[in-house]
Amino acid sequence: MPRIPVSTDQAPAAIGPYSQAVRAGDTVFLSGQIPLDPATGELVPGDVAAQARQAFRNLEAVCAAAGGSLDDVVRLGLYLTDLGEFAAVNAAMAEFFSAPYPARSTIEVSALPKGAAFEVDAILALR
Fold it and tell me: pLDDT tens across 50-81, in order?
């Protein structure tokens, strides 16, 4: 099965040798999105909730470029530099997703690219 790259200028460009997403059949694997403003390439200002919202908006843009939406996300990976911010990230996530929620893991990491406090990746199942 061929790997078909997915990209959009509505989300930040990849900052390394990877694709924003790759489609294989009806499954799309979305690379991690950090809270970069797609227009400037800079981290958005604000707390972890503001960063999470921007990362989810970026993820949403890549989903759209792949022909889907956040409603098609079946799995999320959340990465925080401080698990003490878990409740704030949950609240931000609830603004973008509704039941039935995707499967999810939440992992504390020591650091993220560009000094971000939050990153999200996903798997999308297209219909």
Answer: 999 999 999 999 999 999 999 999 999 999 99
Residue 78 · residue 91 · CB < 8 Å: no
| Tokens 């893991």 sit on residue | 105
Sign of CA dihedral 17, 19, 23, 28: positive
Pair type for strands 21-24 and 4-6: antiparallel
Nearest Cα to 68, choosing from 125, 118, 106, 120?
Answer: 125
Q: Where are the alpha helices (DSSP H) in the chain?
A: 48-65, 86-94
Is 0.90 surpassed by the pTM of this model? Answer: yes
- Contact, 127 vs 72, CB < 8 A? yes
Do 64 and 10 contact (CB within 8 A), yes or no?
A: yes
